[in-house]
Design brief:
The protein is an alpha+beta fold and about 120 residues long. The protein has six helices and five strands, in the order H-E-H-E-H-E-H-E-E-H-H. The protein has a three-stranded antiparallel beta sheet with strand order 2-5-4. Strands 1-3 form a two-stranded parallel sheet.
Length: about 120
Amino acid sequence: MADRYQNRIEILQGTLDLLILQTLAWGPQHGYGITQAIRANSNNVLTADTGSLYPALHRLERKKWIAAEWQLSENKQRVRVYNLTGKGRKQLVSERSRWSAFTEAIAGILNPSRNEADS
């Protein structure tokens, strides 16, 4: 069982916010659905545990980047469904831009010869 989770990567808090916003850009979702979308779209590499996910959802809701409402699931259980707000869509654009700059900076450090060729 430990081998199954060996290659999973714990998500950093700022990155988790970006992943939640992106997941909700695809459509409204409840917490478990967000977790499943992150896992599935990362080929089972990234995982967001409930101890990180729900505090992040509450934080994003306080910032008004997402909104939530109670709904009945297909199983007739009450679930909290999260939606991306207009403010959240703007934040997603900003977060994606910052992520792009971050990954380019990391790539420059990991592949310094690439930077020298550009100079």
